[in-house]
Design a protein that fits this description.
The chain is α+β, with helices and mostly antiparallel strands and 218 residues long. It contains seven helices and seven strands. Strands 1, 2, 3, 4, 5, 6 and 7 form a seven-stranded mixed sheet that branches. Strand 6 and strand 7 form a beta hairpin. Helix 6 packs across helix 7.
């Protein structure tokens, strides 16, 4: 899956390479894929995107959102995004290909499974997307010690293992196994340790590891 650091890096790269480009061609659903998820039908995507200009990209948890004139392009999970400069060959297989006025392009290809959603802003009713947008990211200053203590005090949380606390139930969207082990290793906490057994010093170490590891990787 795309995790917080990768999503943040991808959003930054998209802002550097695609912002301001005008869309002139859209191919969606070119390669059939049983586990590629779309908004409505991919045949609608050209209607949503043609003539629009890329505004900016943002990351929410493990999702990458691109805004283009009131339309949202959203990627998550097992989607590989590639930029293609003018004259470069495009992949033979893809679930979304967008070409720009300057002849550059980018493609999105689903690996095992993944979402390639294009929709009018506010139209996607996806709980993972909504939670990712609502929750505070560890990369934000609002994810402070007080916020973390509030998370730890939620009902039932103290019975969980450190691993389950960090990587389940969308408590921290976009935090998965890719960064989990590094965080727990730095905090010197075994993945199976129950939260109620942690000392105050260990809880502080866990918080600091989340902040530092994710910032370092992003």
């Amino acid at each position: 899956m795309i995790e917080i650091p990768e999503a943040n890096a991808l959003a930054g790269q998209i802002n550097q390479t695609l912002a301001g480009k005008r869309i002139v061609r859209v191919v969606a659903g070119h390669t059939p894929h049983k586990y590629a998820w779309y908004y409505l039908k991919p045949s609608k995507y050209p209607d949503f995107l043609l003539g629009k200009t890329i505004d900016e990209a943002s990351s929410y948890g493990g999702l990458v959102e691109i805004q283009a004139g009131g339309t949202i392009i959203l990627f998550g999970d097992g989607v590989r995004i590639k930029y293609h400069g003018k004259g470069e060959k495009h992949p033979l297989k893809h679930q979304l290909l967008i070409e720009f006025e300057d002849h550059a392009a980018f493609s999105a290809s689903v690996q095992m499974y993944g979402g390639v959603w294009v929709f009018p802003a506010g139209a996607l009713d996806n709980p993972y997307y909504q939670v990712a947008r609502e929750k505070t990211s560890p990369l934000d200053s609002q994810f402070d010690w007080t916020y973390f203590q509030t998370m730890m005090a939620l009902p039932g949380v103290q019975k969980l293992s450190a691993k389950a606390f960090l990587a389940t139930e969308q408590r921290i969207p976009g935090l998965g196994n890719g960064v989990l082990q590094d965080i727990l290793y730095q905090a010197k906490i075994h993945p199976k340790r129950k939260l109620h057994t942690l000392s105050n010093k260990e809880v502080q170490a866990l918080y600091e590891a989340i902040k530092s590891i994710l910032a370092e990787m992003s």
